[in-house]
């Protein structure tokens, strides 16, 4: 299965669980720790992954596309995604990214990119992969 297909399954899982997330909500725990700082190789791998994706460019949201973002913006976004994954389920993090203006597809790509092996927070990969598997992937 390609990374793009896995990202699509992630967004499908978000759609399936959207009602549950709305009912249960998500809250940040007090004093939550931030994600560990990634090394230069992890940052480089993440940027490479993000640049290799063909982002969905919706006319009204094109400015939010990973292909339209600088490396600095993508790094900050990826690091925030890793921090958010410490306190929230992957589907909730996709929802947080959507609230910031990212398309659901791009949000899924960001979460996938940040959690891949040798990128920003590979320790979160199993949680993302489990959600994708539960969605039928």
TrEMBL record:
InterPro entries assigned to the protein according to its UniProt record, in alphabetical order: DUF732 (IPR007969), TAT_signal (IPR006311)
PROSITE patterns named among the record's database cross-references: PROKAR_LIPOPROTEIN, TAT
Domain of life, per lineage: Bacteria
Keywords of this entry: Signal
Protein name: DUF732 domain-containing protein
Domain DUF732: start-end pairs: 68-123
Pfam families: DUF732
Signal peptide: 1-32
């Amino acid at each position: 299965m390609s990374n793009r297909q896995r990202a699509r399954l992630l967004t499908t899982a978000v759609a399936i669980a959207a009602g549950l997330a709305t009912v249960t909500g998500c809250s940040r725990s007090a004093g939550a720790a931030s994600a560990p700082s990634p090394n230069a190789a992890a940052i480089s791998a993440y940027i490479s992954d993000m640049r290799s994706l063909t982002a969905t460019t919706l006319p009204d949201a094109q400015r939010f596309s990973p292909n339209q973002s600088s490396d600095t913006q993508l790094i900050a976004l990826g690091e925030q995604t890793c921090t958010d994954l410490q306190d929230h389920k992957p589907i909730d993090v996709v929802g947080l990214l959507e609230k910031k203006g990212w398309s659901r597809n791009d949000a899924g790509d960001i979460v996938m990119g940040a959690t891949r092996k040798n990128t920003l927070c590979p320790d979160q990969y199993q949680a993302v992969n489990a959600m994708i598997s539960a969605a039928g992937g």
